[in-house]
Structures are given as C-alpha cells and as structure tokens.
Specification:
The structure holds two protein chains of two kinds. By secondary structure, chain A is α+β, with helices and mostly antiparallel strands. Chain A has five domains: 106 residues, Alpha-Beta Plaits; 191 residues, no CATH class; 100 residues, Calcium-transporting ATPase, cytoplasmic transduction domain A (Distorted Sandwich); 155 residues, Rossmann fold (3-Layer(aba) Sandwich), CATH 3.40.50.1000; 101 residues, Calcium-transporting ATPase, cytoplasmic domain N, CATH 3.40.1110. Chain A is 52% helix and 18% strand. Chain A has 26 helices and 26 strands. In chain A, strands 14-26-25-24-15-22-23 form a seven-stranded mixed sheet, sandwiched between helices. The longest helix of chain A is centred in the first third of the chain and has 35 residues. The radius of gyration of chain A is 32 Å and the shape is elongated. Chain A starts with 18 loop residues before the first helix and ends with a helix. Chain B is an all-alpha fold. Helix content of chain B is 62%, strand content 0%. The termini of chain B are far apart. The model of chain B has no long low-confidence stretch (mean pLDDT 80). The chains are: A alpha+beta, B mainly alpha. Chains A and B meet through helix 2, strand 2, helix 5 and helix 6 of A and helix 1 and helix 2 of B.
Chain lengths: 729, 52
C-alpha cells in the first residue's frame, strides 16, 4: 500500500521509497512469530499503558503485552492460535478501540533497518564532528607549526573513515542519479565531501594552513540529520498506510460440499460458494443462492438505506451484509471484482491530477546547477588569474562547494514536515504523502461526501414523541429482537427514553423484511413498508403494524462529531464548502440544512463527482475532497488533496493523502491551519538558507573563506532552520 | 606540550566511549518508543518486561 506516485524529491534521491518490495520481503519473513499486533489509536498516557498491558496480560492465553506509545500499538505475545478478535474485545472493555494488524506491517516497522542504519551513521558523524571540532578550535585560535600539522593529521584520522562510512547514503544516490543522467542534490554534496577531504589531506601533507576536515564531517552530520528526519516521517506514514491496509483482513468462508473453510480472498475462484455471515463485508462479486438479508451499499453508492438481498440478487465486493446468513456464488473475484474495476476509474482521475511540484524539488532544480557552475567558474577564474596555481584554485573551488552545500536546504523541508506530521499524528491524522501538507495549504474549496463522512452512517430515530406510549413499547419489544441497524438504533433510543418492553410473544426475525410477533392475541410487525402494509416515506424509516393501523418511525443519519464545528471553522477561514452525495435527495437535503451547506447535489454518480471536481479545478480552485466510499475514490484521486476517515473502504484510503484515525472530523480545520503554517515555514527556511549563501558565497568566490567561516555559516544556518521549524504550534 | 600526548588520546578515548554507548543503546532498541519511555517512568508499577 503506497501513497500516490509523486515525483521523487530531487533533494533527496536517497530516500527513494521502496515500500512494496519491503512489504513483500517482510511478509515472507514474518510467519514464525506468535506475535499479534493491534493498533490502539487512543492510547496516550502512562495510565493507558499500564491499564492495557495489565488488562491483556491477565488473559490466560497472553504471554506478554507491550505498548508502543510512539506508534500507538500494542504488541502481544500469545499462544499460537489465539483469536485476535478476543484481544480486540478485551481492549474494547478496557475502553480502547483497537484494530487487528497484519504481521507484515509489524515486521516492516519493528525491523526498520534503514532507519537504524541512518541513525548509526548520524551517531558516528556526530562523534567525529565533536572531536574534529575540538582540534579545529585549537588550530583556529592560533596553533601553528608542528602542533597544527599534528592536529590536522589526527583530524584526518578521525574524519576520513567517518566520511567513508557516514557519507555512503550520499555517494550511493549521487552515483545512481549520475547514471540516470541527472544532477541531483547529492552530486554536489558528494563532490564537496570528496574534494574537501582530498584537498585537506594534500594541504596537511604539505603543512598548509587550511584543512576542511571539520567542514566535511559537519556536512555529513547536518545532512544526515535532515535525511533521518525525512526518513522517519516517511516511515511513520508508510507504517500507518500498512496499518490501514491491515484493518481489512481479506478472508472469506468457502463452502465445498457442506464443509466450510476460511480461506484468503485471493484463493477464491469463479463458481465457488461463499458463506456470508451477518456483519461481514462482501469479499467478491456474486449472486445470492440461499438466504435473505439486508445489504448496506453505502460505501459503494452512498445510499444510506439498506437494500434487500434474496436468492438471485447480485452483490458487489465491498458491500456489507447486515442481518441474514447468505450463500453466494462467486461471479468475479480479486482483480476482476467491481472493487478492483473501480481502480481503473482512479487511474483515469489520477492522470488528470496536475502533478504537484514539491517546494523542495523546485528549490533543488534551481540550486543544483548553480552550485556546480559557481564552483567550476571559480576554479577556472583563479586558474587564469593566478597563472595556473592549481592548489589555490582547487582550494577556492572546494570552499565554494562546501559553503553552498545545501546543509540548511537539506534540513529546510524535513525539519518542518516532521514537526508538523508529528503534531497531526497526535491529533489523530496520518499523512500518507510527503507533499500533502504543501497542497493542503492552498485549498480554497472543500467537497464533502455525506454518508460515512459528514454522517456516521448510524441512523437515529426522529419524532418519537409523536407516538403513543403503547406503540413505543411494542416497537421496542420487536426492535430488540432484530439485528437490523434501524432496529438496533430504535431499540437503543427507546430504552434511553425509559420505555418498557411490551409482552410480545413468539418474536422472530424475517430476514429481509422485519420482525413479527404476537401481542395481546394480535400479530404485530415491524419492518419494511410493503411487508407491514404501510405507505413508504421519502426518508429512511421503519414501520410498525399494530392492530389495524401502521406507524412510521423516521430516521436521520447521526452527524459525525465535530461536523458542525468544522463547518464553522471553514467558513471563518473563507473556504467554500460543497456536498456531493450518492444518497437520495431528501436525505442529502436534511444533512445540508442541518450543517448550513447551501451548495449540494444528491444522487451523484462516481463519474459525476469526478466531473464536478475537475470543473472546480478548471475554474482555478484548489479542491480538498473528503470522502469514504468507493463512489468517492475517483473524486479523491482527482482532487488536489484528499482526506478520508479510517472507517473508509480500502480503495478510498489508498487514494487519499491524509487519513483521520478518530471519529471526530473537526481536526480537518486544524490540519488546514497547520498546513498553511508548514508552507510558510518552509519558505522562510529557504529564505534563511539563501541569505546565508548570499553572504558567504562572495567571500568564498574571492578566496577569503577560511574553514572557520565555512563552519560558522554551515552550523548557524542549519541551527536557525531547525529552530524555525520547531517554532510550529 | 608533552601533555598533548596524554590529553589527545584521553579525549579521543572518552569520545569513543560515548560512541560505544550510543551504538549499544541503538542495538538494544532504545529508540523504538521514545514517547512510551517518557511516560513509563511516571507509572507507579515496575516495568517487568522491558524490551529485549
């Protein structure tokens, strides 16, 4: 699971992410462990840690449990064969929502070899930098003669192995970009490292005044720091993406000759019979053979009302089976299923998405040639001016390379984005794409989906006060006997009002229709309008037949927490809001009115959503799409930047740049604010590093730059840039 | 200046000691959960199962 393909930042060709390959390798290697990994987004404090660890450890089949607060996960060592669902249920009783995660995700993140490797090189560079700097201070403060030479030789002894070891990431990626015929940012870096080391050794051997060992090592240190920050941000995003992929564990129950076995969805073939339990997601496209049930298609179409499924009806992958047991014959599985066909739509939409140029790319494209030109023209000029004094010309050329070398530039973007994504992660938002924040900062129109995005997809009965107490108690008695979401919601809110159950006998579920029973000798029914004999309403409702009369209970979708606050915050910022939904007109109108959204459209097809977003973009708007369903996937990919809730379908989460882990949606306003700060900080950082260059480069060009000046310029600019990034609130 | 013959090796040795300590912490997964470590120290119960 990777975020959308974006041009790899030229400032950092070494961080070419290869998440797919890593994921596959991890999957192969991670079969032996009896470890289970659960994602627990709500864990945040010392008390949470001990509650969870003690709660899980008290279960008989758990050997040990360890919370990782940084990743918000708990790693459980359990007896092989332990059902992760039981652990999830235990955590739910403790008050923490949890999701099971793939073992592959575990392996890929705990064995973060690349991160450890970078940290090791950073540590070695830091050690050398401090020691070489101590020696250099002595030289700068006036050591000369044999003492200076001795100090230079000791510096060489420390610095050369360090450059060879710590500089490897730069050398490797410079070589790779040279072979690809590009001048990446790592080419001047490597050139500076090699040239600085070589000239320093030469000067030391000829007991010269200036050696740049400290500069070479410091360059390594600051650049590695930037690279490590960048890697950490990416690794966090990647593991979050893997985590999301693992939320939906793709298994299905196959029935062959009456024997049921659980198999991975990938093994299903056309013609297989699959058993669907209530509450499960449909894994394939198929035709119903046996059973009747209600199907929730909201993720695919945005319809909030469940539809009836009976023998002969067609199901699509991604729908949710609500009430009855179904047996389905597979008509299309895996790549051919409708879920995957939707990927084509996404591909089309992506092609239309203007390729965003990251700020760092733009800076690097400007900067990299400039560095080379400056350095070589300084070399040429001084060769001509001094009549062929190679030693002096190379010295000046190396000084120019070292001074212009993008220490601060290498830190400018990673320092800011890692500070910001850490902040957003704590607020429950996971950034999947490196440039997402930069794009989010430019947004001026937000398009929302309704079902599952602005609303929770959880119905809430309305107008209960208009019914007689007797009606309510019969309705409660019937509703309590059914697992249909409308019944569950009705029963819950009736109980909350203190309604007592009527004595209804012989209650039973009629899948796909409703519940019936006998009350005071009469048949009573709660369910669909035609079955009950009532006239259907325009909004989602359930109906009660009692005596000769029928009663309708209307429902509205419960708003996602924070939706109202979000609308207020967006309008305060002057950002326009639209609502595009696949649901019926009445349902959309009700939500739009509750939230005060004036521009909305109902019964929108996926293609129409894409077209609407493209029209907005052509009109010059920057669009943020917030959606969760399969019908939003194309629109998510077509928008400039997209956000989806964690409850969204896999495909929608893949297509979006940011995922909301919690239920509260108000964080989006915060994300936009932080994104704007990020963009401002990045630009400031570029300005700071440019300013240092403007001051220092002329000095280097005329040959006045001493190692002391280089060290000062480099460390001051890097530290200012990092501090500026940490200023984020 | 003979003192340099002592001071330089000593300072390098101390630096190497620090580097060794850093490598040791890295090898023992001490940077895997920095947020957790900062919170665990506040918990009253003893951490019976530290990371391997």
């Amino acid at each position: 699971m990777v975020s959308l393909p974006h041009p790899s930042p030229a400032a950092c060709p070494a961080c070419i992410a290869a998440p797919m390959a890593e994921g596959i390798a991890a999957r192969l290697g991670a079969t032996a462990a009896g470890n289970l990994v659960l994602s627990v987004p709500a864990v945040h404090c010392a008390a949470c840690i001990s509650t969870i660890e003690r709660g899980l450890a008290s279960m008989p089949d758990v050997v040990s449990a360890r919370v990782n607060l940084t990743l918000k996960r708990v790693i459980v060592a359990a007896i092989p064969g332990t059902d992760p669902e039981r652990l999830v249920a235990r955590l739910a009783r403790l008050g923490y929502a949890a999701h099971e995660m793939d073992e592959a995700a575990l392996a890929a993140t705990t064995l973060d070899a690349a991160g450890r490797d970078l940290l090791m090189r950073l540590g070695v560079a830091g050690f050398s930098m401090m020691n070489v700097m101590l020696l250099s201070v002595a030289v700068w403060s006036g050591a000369d003669g044999p003492t200076r030479d001795l100090f230079h030789w000791i510096s060489a002894l420390i610095a050369l192995p360090t450059v060879v070891f710590s500089g490897q990431p730069f050398f490797a990626s410079a070589w790779a970009s040279l072979r690809a015929g590009r001048l990446g940012m790592d080419v001047p870096i490597s050139l500076a490292l090699v040239l600085a080391s070589a000239i320093s050794v030469f000067e030391t051997a000829h007991s010269g005044h200036h050696a740049y060992f400290d500069a070479a090592v410091m360059l390594c240190f600051f650049l590695l720091a930037g690279r490590y920050l960048d890697h950490r941000t990416r690794a966090l995003a990647r593991s979050a993406a893997a985590e999301l992929a693992a939320l939906e564990v793709p298994r299905a129950v196959r029935r062959i000759g009456g024997v049921e076995t659980t198999v991975p969805v990938a093994e299903l073939a056309v013609g297989d019979e699959v058993v669907l339990r209530p509450g499960g997601r449909v894994p394939v496209d198929g035709l119903v053979l046996e059973g009747t049930s209600d199907i929730d298609r909201s993720l695919l179409t945005g319809e909030s009302l469940p539809v009836l499924a009976m023998p002969g009806s067609a199901l699509s992958a991604g729908e949710m089976n609500l009430t009855g047991l179904l047996v389905v014959r597979v008509t299309a599985a895996g790549r051919d299923s409708s879920l995957h066909r939707m990927a084509d739509l996404v591909a089309v939409a992506e092609a239309g998405r203007g390729r965003y140029n990251a700020l760092a790319d733009r800076a690097a494209r400007l900067y990299s040639p400039l560095v080379h030109i400056l350095s070589f023209s300084a070399f040429g000029y001084w060769m001509w001016q001094t009549g062929g004094d190679l030693r002096f010309a190379v010295n000046v050329s190396a000084a120019v390379l070292i001074i212009t070398c993008p220490c601060a530039l290498g830190l400018a973007v990673p320092a800011v984005t890692s500070a910001a994504s850490g902040k957003l992660f704590r607020k429950g938002m996971v950034i999947k794409n490196g440039t997402a924040l930069e794009r989010l900062a430019l947004v001026d129109v937000v398009v929302f989906d309704k079902t599952g995005t602005l609303t929770l997809g959880v119905p809430q009965p309305t107008g209960l006060a208009g019914h007689a107490p007797e009606t309510l108690s019969v309705a409660l008695a019937l509703a309590a006997a059914s697992a249909h979401p409308l019944s569950v919601a009705l029963a819950a809110s009736l109980r909350a009002q203190g309604v007592a159950e009527a004595a209804v006998q012989d209650r039973h579920d009629v899948p796909g229709h409703g519940v019936e029973g006998i009350w005071q000798g009469n048949r009573v029914r709660l369910g669909r309008a035609p079955w009950v004999g009532a006239a259907p309403l325009a909004l989602s409702a359930t109906y009660l037949a009692l005596g000769g009369a029928t009663h309708a209970f209307g429902f509205e979708d419960r708003l996602r927490p924070g939706a109202e606050a979000l609308m207020a915050a967006l309008s305060a910022r002057g950002i326009a809001v639209r609502l595009l939904s696949g649901d019926s007109e009445a349902a959309v109108a009700a939500v739009a009115q509750r939230l005060g959204i004036t521009q909305w459209a109902a019964e929108t097809l996926p293609e129409a959503k894409i077209a609407a977003i493209e029209a907005l973009r052509r009109a010059g708007h920057r669009v943020l799409m917030v959606g969760d369903g399969l019908n939003d996937t194309g629109a998510l990919a077509a928008a400039d930047v997209s956000i989806s809730p964690a409850s969204a379908l896999d495909a929608a989460r893949v297509a979006s740049d940011i995922v909301l882990m919690g239920q509260d949606i108000a964080g989006i306003a915060d994300a936009i604010r932080i994104a704007r700060v990020v963009r401002r900080r990045i630009k400031q950082n570029f300005a700071i590093s440019a300013l240092y260059n403007v001051v220092a480069v002329p000095l280097a060009l005329v040959g006045l730059a001493t190692p002391l000046a280089a060290a000062l310029a480099m460390s001051l600019s890097s530290i200012t840039v990092s501090l500026n990034a940490l200023r984020m609130r | 200046m003979e003192i340099l013959g002592w001071l330089i090796p000593i300072s390098l040795g101390l630096g190497l000691l620090g580097l060794g300590a850093f490598v040791w912490t890295l090898r023992h997964h001490q940077y895997d959960d920095p947020a957790g470590a900062s919170q665990r120290i506040l918990a009253p119960d003893h951490d019976d199962h530290p990371m391997p």
